[in-house]
Prior knowledge:
Helix content is 19%, strand content 26%. It is globular, with a radius of gyration of 17 Å. It contains five helices and 15 strands. The N and C termini lie close together (9 Å). By secondary structure, it is α/β, with parallel strands linked by helices. The strands form five sheets. Strands 2-1-15 form a three-stranded mixed β-sheet, with helices on both faces. The chain has a three-stranded mixed β-sheet with strand order 3-4-5, covered by helices on one side. The chain has a three-stranded mixed β-sheet with strand order 6-7-8, with helices on one face. Citrulline (CIR) binds at residues 16-17, 19, 60, 63, 65-66, 82, 85, 114, 160, 241-244, 247.
Amino acid sequence: MLHAITRAVSPAIVDCELTHLERTPIDLEVAxxxxxxxxxxxxxxxxxxxxxxxxxxxxxSVFVEDVAVVLDEVAIITRPGAASRRGERTTIEEAxxxxxxLARIGxxxxxxxxxxxxxxxxxxxxxxSRSDLEGIEQFRAIAVRHGYRVHAIRVRGCLHLKSAxxxxxxxxxxxxxxxxxxxxxxxxxxxxxxxxxxxxxxVLQLDGTVVAAAAFPRTVDKLAxxxxxxxxxxxxxxxxxxxxxxxxxxxxxxPQP
Length: 257
Ligand code: CIR
């Protein structure tokens, strides 16, 4: 079954890191209710949701994806590129320890989980403002031991690799062709976002359903027209913190109890 680790929105989210967005006011209560609706959606799609308590001193801690990459064989605790996010690791390590052997990215490497796109045995990792070559080489050394191939891809114009490309099913990616060249990615069928919605690529694939953000209706229609079962969630307040859909959960395949 699928276990999902989430974390309640921090009251400090208004002080989040921002790279490509201007700071605009975030309504904490709205952010919390949108986050709760996100959790309800993934629970409805079959995930067992484990919500970690909010971290009042860690503004971006709701975005749990960046702190770990969970493979079937090992969970790799990252060293986030933003120093303000490194304190998020302790509680994520504790939450993952019952499910996976842990490995770690160490100093001086940096890596954010938002830069890591796992498709079968291929793992694409963005070289970004958050993830550097040292972090990627450390990740590669761990992953190759378990039979994965790691491909480093330069990220431009967005925070993370997965800001511009994500999986919609086991064989298909959704991407923004202005930021990601399909040829850079390991062989997969590619759908493109609507050109008026360049930030629409970050969708969450869960048990045959694609969870997409309400802000991108044209891309939602495109996915539906391509035959995908799509669930729409409103995450506008979390988007003001430069977060999207994959970043709000860590998904772990666990054996049935
Ligand atoms: C940050 O800049 O770290 C947060 N404000 C947003 C992180 C979003 N993470 C993700 O999309 N994987």
